[in-house]
Amino acid sequence: MDIRVLRGADVRELLPMAECVELMHRTMIAVAEGRVVLPLRSVMVMPGDLGMLGNMPGYLAEPECFGVKLVSLIPRNKPPLYSSHLGLVLLFEAEHGCPVALLDAAEITAIRTAAASGLATRLLSNPQAGDLAVLGAGEQARSHLTAMLAVRTLHRVRIWSRDSAKAAEFARVEGARHHISIETAPTAREAVADADIICTVTKARDPILLGEWLAPGAHLNVVGSSIASTAEIDTPAVVKSRFFVDYKESTRNEGGEYLRALTSGAIFAEHILGEIGEVANGSLVGRRSPSDITLYKSLGIAPQDLASAHYVLQKARAAGIGQVIDF
Ligand code: NDP
To answer: How far is the CA of 224 from the centre of ligand 1 (A)?
Structure first.
């Protein structure tokens, strides 16, 4: 039996952002139409502040495969030396259940999360939206900038980070990478003033973005909070948004911003208008008017990882990339 091992650099080479956005388009439609098996992820919390081990299994009907992503989340790790999500995606073929690939999970997570936000931005933001604000300056901030550039023509990019030196470094390095000018904003409020696309990609436990700061017509990708107890945006921001999600079931369990708004009585459960795959397949209307504020709540789901792993594996086999281990 052969298993192909693919490093982060292989994943980066074989999964360009624009291709991953198209892959997420197909994948999120499959999720919305029930052509996946998607149990809620389980998280093992280790003692003290050691961190967590996340276990994300799933099955895809097309292309048929199944597998699991296993990632550690270790708070004391300092990026960029250690990614926020370290681990592996193990992919199985469906006919005999043989494991066929083992891939770096950090790179897949960085790319597929931003690609899914790219899809949401393409579906929900105003077509001429070109003023981007990114809150946070880590790995997801980098990949989200790439994704936003892939789906919209940006004429202004602002970055805010709680550490202004990190924002400045981000602006310098990523500006050079993409041949664009990136402004640093001294506060989150100044970063989002009149922005029409906003990505929140921080590890903040409590809101860094307030609803009263949002301009009419803005689209938000709310990505950083992945557990029920944390929230990057406040309840008024949730209330005034047309609220779409990657997967309803996980939002009801882990969507911190949604749960805070629900328990405060500011919204009802119906505030979740639907999944982004339902907007992608045309069964739901996303934006109704240029002044709507739209929101995509991302928690991240296994089909995004498995579809990416399968896609990368096909390309790796064709190009002879990766290390093949016979076991
Ligand atoms: P990084 O560690 O690379 O970056 C985290 C960023 O958040 C840094 O800019 C950091 O600033 C900032 N930050 C940390 N604490 C706070 C705070 N209290 N207030 C404001 N900013 C803060 O992580 P990633 O970019 O990889 O991930 C960002 C978030 O996205 C994480 O919470 C992660 O769990 C989540 N995530 C969600 C996914 C999804 O599918 N929805 C997938 C992957 C990640 P500083 O450098 O100063 O610490």
So the answer is: 6
Sign of CA pseudo-dihedral 294, 300, 301, 304: positive
Q: Residues 177, 286: one domain? A: yes
What is the pLDDT at residue 84? Answer: 82
What pTM was estimated for this model as a whole? 0.98
Q: How confident is the model at residue 172 (pLDDT cuts 50, 70, 90)?
A: very high
User: Does a structural domain hold residue 14?
Assistant: yes
The verdict on whether omega for the bond into residue 186 sits within 30 degrees of 0, i.e. cis, is no
96 plus 207 within the same structural domain: no
Strands 131-135 and 99-104, by their bridges, are: unpaired
- Give, using CA atoms, the residue closest to atom 33 of ligand 1: 224
pLDDT in tens, 75-132: 888 877 888 889 999 999 999 999 999 999 999 999 999 999 999 999 999 999 999 9
User: pLDDT at position 265, please?
Assistant: 98
Ligand 1 centre to CA of 300 (Å) is 14
Location of structure tokens 């906003």: 198
> Is residue 105 exposed (0-12), middle (13-18) or buried (19+ Cβ within 10 Å)?
buried
Q: What's the token pair of residue 207?
A: 């809101």
Please check whether residue 137 lies inside any domain of the structure: yes
Q: At what angle do helices 105-124 and 17-32 cross, to 10 degrees?
A: 70
- Residue 25 pLDDT exceeds 80: yes
Say whether both 150 and 290 belong to one domain.
yes
- Ligand 1: atom nearest CA of 300 is 40
